[in-house]
């Protein structure tokens, strides 16, 4: 969050106490970057979504875990930051595959269903269901769609019409001492900002819209204070 000197005026005007909605002190094994995740062995257990995962990965669809299945599933989990990386065809792995499918289907027409307003001029749209965001001007797509990582269960990114009200390029949380580059706050402590984890890494943020650094930088260059933000849908698993 901002230093006390920098936020006194904003707090007085808005009655807000900004919290770190995007990043917290998450154990290494949750992020999939610690020794616990790396040292995990390949499971021999058959997961509840074994057949679905086998089909997605173009494996033999027999619903039975094999060493080949586990290797492929672990590779997928490692690529997309799904933890624990043990090759288990569980709900998080299958949900990630479904999200990826929806994201790819969005193509270059993410607002095909017209759920994000087209009468606002420039606006940043966030679809929690597909975990994507994009910037449009009227009906014209200006940037994206890009994958995002939104609020986990009990810390959901709030839906509705918002506006960017404060930006801080090199923001650091004073609460958790965590870097939040290219922060653009649009709803209390909820903001667009870059993170160092993959967008599909469970369980999600504490409300912020996490982005890859390159995407957060593009949002920083394209948006300004007062620009509209519209958040809709529901994140899978919340």
UniProtKB/TrEMBL annotation:
Record domain L,D-TPase catalytic: where: 121-232
One Pfam match: YkuD
Residues making up the signal peptide according to the UniProt record: 1-39
Entry-linked InterPro entries: LD-transpeptidase, LD_TPept_cat_dom, PGBD-like_sf, Transpep_catalytic_dom
Keyword line: Cell shape, Cell wall biogenesis/degradation, Peptidoglycan synthesis, Signal, Transferase
The protein's annotated pathway: Cell wall biogenesis; peptidoglycan biosynthesis
Highest taxon listed in the record's lineage: Bacteria
Residues of the active site: 193, 208
Entry protein name: L,D-transpeptidase
Highest classification ranks of the organism: Bacteria, Bacillati, Actinomycetota, Actinomycetes, Kitasatosporales
């Amino acid at each position: 969050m901002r230093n006390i000197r920098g936020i006194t005026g904003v707090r007085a005007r808005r009655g807000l106490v900004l919290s770190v909605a995007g990043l917290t002190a998450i154990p290494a094994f949750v992020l999939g970057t610690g020794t616990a995740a790396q040292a995990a062995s390949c499971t021999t257990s058959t997961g509840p979504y074994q057949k679905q995962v086998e089909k997605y990965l173009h494996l033999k669809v027999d619903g039975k875990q094999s060493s080949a299945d586990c290797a492929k599933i672990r590779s997928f989990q490692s690529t997309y930051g799904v933890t624990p990386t043990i090759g288990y065809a569980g709900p998080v792995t299958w949900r990630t595959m479904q999200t990826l499918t929806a994201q790819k289907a969005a193509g270059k027409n993410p607002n095909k269903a017209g759920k994000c307003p087209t009468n606002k001029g420039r606006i940043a749209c966030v679809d929690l269901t597909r975990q994507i965001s994009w910037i449009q001007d009227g009906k014209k797509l200006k940037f994206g769609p890009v994958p995002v990582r939104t609020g986990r269960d009990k810390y959901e990114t709030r839906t509705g019409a918002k506006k960017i009200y404060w930006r801080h390029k090199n923001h650091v949380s004073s609460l958790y001492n965590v870097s939040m580059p290219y922060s653009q706050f649009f709803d209390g402590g909820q903001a667009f900002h870059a993170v160092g984890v993959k967008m599909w890494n469970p369980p999600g943020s504490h409300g912020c819209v996490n982005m890859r650094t390159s995407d957060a930088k593009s949002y920083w260059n394209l948006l300004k204070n007062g620009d509209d933000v519209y958040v809709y849908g529901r994140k899978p698993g919340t």
